[in-house]
Amino acid sequence: MLILGEVLGYGKDFGVYLEGNRIRAVAPAADLLARHPAARRLRVERVTPGIADAHAHPLFYGAEKRRLSLAGLTDLREVAARVAAHPDPGWVLGGGFLFDARPARALLDAAGRGRPVYLRSRDLHAARANEAALEAAGFSPDDPLVDWEAGWVVETALARLEAAAPAPGPEDLWRGLWAFARRGYTAVHALAYEPPEALSWAEARAGELPVRLWWALPRGAWRGVRPGWRGERLFVGGVKFFADGALGPATAWMHAPYCGGGTGTPVDAPEAIEAEGREALAAGFTLAVHAIGTRAVAGVLALFKRLPRLPGRPLRIEHLQDLRDEDLALLAQEGVVASMQPVHLAEDAELVRRRLPGREHEAFRFATVARRLPLAFGSDAPVAEPDLAASLREATRHRLSPGESLGFEAALFAHTRGAALAAGWEDYGRIVPGAWADLGLFEGGRLVARVFDGVVEDVEA
Ligand SMILES: [Zn+2]
Questions:
Q1: Selection from 342, 397, 403 nearest residue 53 by Cα
Q2: What are the C-alpha distances in Å from 150 to residues 69, 101, 107, 118, 130?
Q3: What is the second-level CATH architecture of the domain 60-164?
């Protein structure tokens, strides 16, 4: 098959010739038409490498699609009304909210009508639960881990609610990955909110995965696992660590205090990340370290300076959301990829203004980072929907700091080649002979179809 159009990295009136699931040739359209006169032809505006989401949680994205969606709601009374109307007899699970006010738990007790209610915040670092859910998770009213009256649970205490609630299963992983495929993505990086056993669900059907899947394991869970490819669609590549929390609950670890006080907190202790990280590197994994606050970001970059490099396995800093000018020098190092999520700006811009007034310039520094490190872009789904158009828009028209906006091609790079570099996939994310035939096809500036493994599939509206 011959796909003609403006080919990213080559120019207008070029073509890509596909044979089976491989790219065979890239050349001016006229040359390819002469060489392959009988080939099936498809003409589009723009041809790019396959689009990747470099930071996602496909299992929870799939599970979220079954949950009560509370995105955009800020009033707990409205939330309670939705919970009350939910028809399921068992647990009422919800997610996607982001409100930091703390009215009493009683509203959710009433709305649950005897059912446990467990609602996760959009950033996954906090939750609302009613009495039935708190009790099912083994919390008690005088428990220091929870705010019982508010029905408010944060960070590590969330694990107990997760364990008590009905767990997501293989069908959720499948649903999540297919949702990416239908949106036109050809690659997804799973960043280990997934429980360790989820890898075996992916492995069981590795040959049928609807995207190329890069997989990171949670800390500890990599021991005894072999890194590398499982066939041609699943790659086990990383170990995930958390240097801090998130901006929403003010747990991202900062040098200077938040507007309301506090500087956030480390999650995995820095020494622990270094010790286990060195072992994981020696076993052939790379590290993907979550760092949002300035202090976490600087600490992780400083740690990376001390760590050895594996060929083709760059160290990944996930989010890199807040960065001080005085720490810019830490970005100057080889073998590191910055995995960022421009689409979060849509909701986080307001949060940054409120919690970090006067420090807006430290947030989401795409252009500053891109001058020093390769960028890989993702959505952090289900934190945000994997919406390529929205991601490109936020990256190219920065809400907080226009000077940090990227050009269109640089933003596209982060969703293609940059993501491939983060995965350590040498031939991926670029259009070269011999590479897998995974492409993005654009019309009117929008992704309208993908080519995955040589097969053209329209993006679903
Ligand atoms: Zn994440």
A1: 342
A2: 21, 9, 10, 13, 9
A3: Roll (3.10)
The structure's pTM equals 0.85
Cα 20 from chain centre? 30
Whether 52-58+168-428 shares its CATH topology with 60-164 is answered no
Residue type, position 136, single letter: A
What is the CA(161)–ligand 1 centre distance, in A?
19
Question: Whole-angstrom Cα distance, residue 216 to residue 193?
Answer: 9
Report the separation in Å between the CA atom of 126 and the middle of ligand 1, taken as the mean of its atom positions. 14
| Lookup: tokens for 36 | 């392959």
What value, to the nearest 5°, has the Cα angle with vertex 167 and ends 162 and 171? 145
Beta strands in 307-374 (DSSP E): 315-319, 336-340
Question: How far away, in angstroms, is 191 Cα from ligand 1 center?
Answer: 6
> Could you tell me which of 417, 408, 421, 219 has the C-alpha nearest to residue 315?
421
Architecture of domain 52-58+168-428: Alpha-Beta Barrel (3.20)
Q: How far is the CA of 332 from the centre of ligand 1 (A)?
A: 24
For residue 344, the CA-to-ligand 1 centroid distance in Å is: 11
Cα(282) to ligand 1 centroid in Å equals: 24
Distance 193 CA to ligand 1 centre (A): 7
CA 306 to centroid of ligand 1, rounded, Å:
25
pLDDT in tens, the chain (461 residues): 999 999 999 999 999 999 999 999 999 999 999 999 999 999 999 999 999 999 999 999 998 887 888 888 888 889 899 999 988 788 999 988 776 656 678 999 999 999 999 998 888 888 999 999 999 999 999 998 899 999 999 888 999 999 999 888 998 999 999 999 999 999 999 999 888 899 999 999 999 999 999 999 999 999 999 999 999 999 999 999 999 999 888 899 999 999 988 999 999 999 999 999 999 999 999 999 999 999 999 999 999 999 999 888 999 999 999 999 999 999 999 999 999 999 999 989 999 999 999 999 999 999 999 999 999 999 999 989 999 999 999 999 999 999 999 999 999 999 999 999 999 999 999 999 999 999 999 999 999 999 999 999 999 97
The CA–CA distances, whole Å, from 316 to 58, 245, 305, 320, 417 equal 19, 17, 12, 10, 15
Q: Give the residue extent of every domain in the chain.
A: 2-50+448-458, 52-58+168-428, 60-164
3-state secondary structure of 138: coil
